[in-house]
Amino acid sequence: MKRTVFLDKRKYRQILLHISIWTVFIIFNLLLPQSRYSNFISSRIVIFLLMNVVLFYINYLYLVDRLLLKKKTIAYVSFVIILLLAVTLISKELTSEFDLNHRMRPPSFHKNKVPLINTKLVGTFIFGFSLIITGTALKIYSEWNKNERNKKEIEAQKSATELSFLKNQLNPHFLFNSLNSIYSLTTKKSNDAPEAVITLSELMRYMLYETNNDFVPLNKELEYIQNYLKLQRLRIANNENVTLNIHGTISNQKIRPLLLISFIENAFKYGTDFKGNTEVKIEIYINDNKLQFNCINLIGDRKKDNDSSGIGLKNTKERLEFLYPNMHELVVEEEKDRFIVNLMLKLS
Questions:
Q1: How far apart are CA 189 and CA 194, in angstroms?
Q2: In terms of domains, do 187 and 312 share one?
């Protein structure tokens, strides 16, 4: 419903714009010297108006669409010249008839008068050309706006699809490993088993039910990350180098849901070396409406495969570009045997 109203508003603005153009055109013709010979709009002005309306909309509705926008420039220019010459010649005939009908004028009016027929024709040609330029500019601008809207809609749909993908899937290996770890805790009658079950439940509940809005509270997103790391530590034997530190004051800041998790998933996927040592260090700093996310992981011996690492770092970068245009700064680099992600983000 909102989309329909938005489209109607755009069409309404276009109609007003076209009405304004022709209002100016009519007023311009009424102010011409010859218009004072009629008590109302002369037949010449009406015909001249109709000619230029036809000229304008043939170019606006047909020539620009079928020729210029399809890069048939020579054909477009040829048709435009033919139309302009046709309008100019018709105008010449109208002007000749007008001069014939009004040749009986006071002598003082004709005194030292220089024939202006060529000037009139040139003026008619230039005026028609200005209408062509105006119509072409309006059409190109309209098409550009349309393409930009389509581009944004495609990006929005892509972002929504990616978010839906993130929300409705847990990495199968992570889920199975977490369940195996929980099972191992239960067989050992560990006191950590109940907490592990609750943590996994909270993780899944957040992903499935609390990320339906465009923005989520920052504290909820950080709790989700904390729960994710808790379960990762359960499955990792040597987890002393798996750390998460959050600095700063969290109040009512909001963030796009599941924005940081792809970086963290990627860190755990490639953060284990051939000896089984895992190193993933995450630092998050909050300062009012600014968030700094730093993630460092060991580059292990596993071959990098972006196609199977969540939506991949490439798609995460594209999602950031779409969701936080000019509101983020991302640096991803490799330094010796470490993979480093630094993200500066302006929060809502």
A1: 10
A2: yes
Same structural domain, 234 and 141? no
C-alpha 245/C-alpha 164 separation (Å) is 28
Per residue in 174-185, pLDDT tens? 677 778 878 888
Identify whether residues 188 and 328 lie together within a single domain: yes
Answer yes or no: do 146 and 243 share one domain: no
189: Cβ contacts below 8 Å, ≥ 6 apart: none
Please say whether the beta carbons of 339 and 294 come within 8 A.
Answer: no
Q: Please, which residues have CB within 8 angstroms of residue 310's CB and are 6 or more apart in sequence?
A: 166, 171, 261, 262, 265, 266, 316
Rounded Cα–Cα distance for residues 212 and 163 (Å) = 9
pLDDT tens string 301-319: 655 554 444 456 777 887 8
CA 195 from centroid of its chain's CA atoms:
43
Element (H, E) at 156: helix 117-167
Q: Are residues 188 and 136 in the same domain?
A: no
Q: Considering the entire predicted model, what is its pTM?
A: 0.56
The three-state secondary structure class of 316 is: helix
In a shared domain, residues 239 and 317: yes
- 237 and 283 inside one domain: yes
Contacts of 253 (CB under 8 A, 6+ apart): 217, 218, 286, 289, 291, 347, 348
Q: State which residues form the domain around 83.
A: 2-162
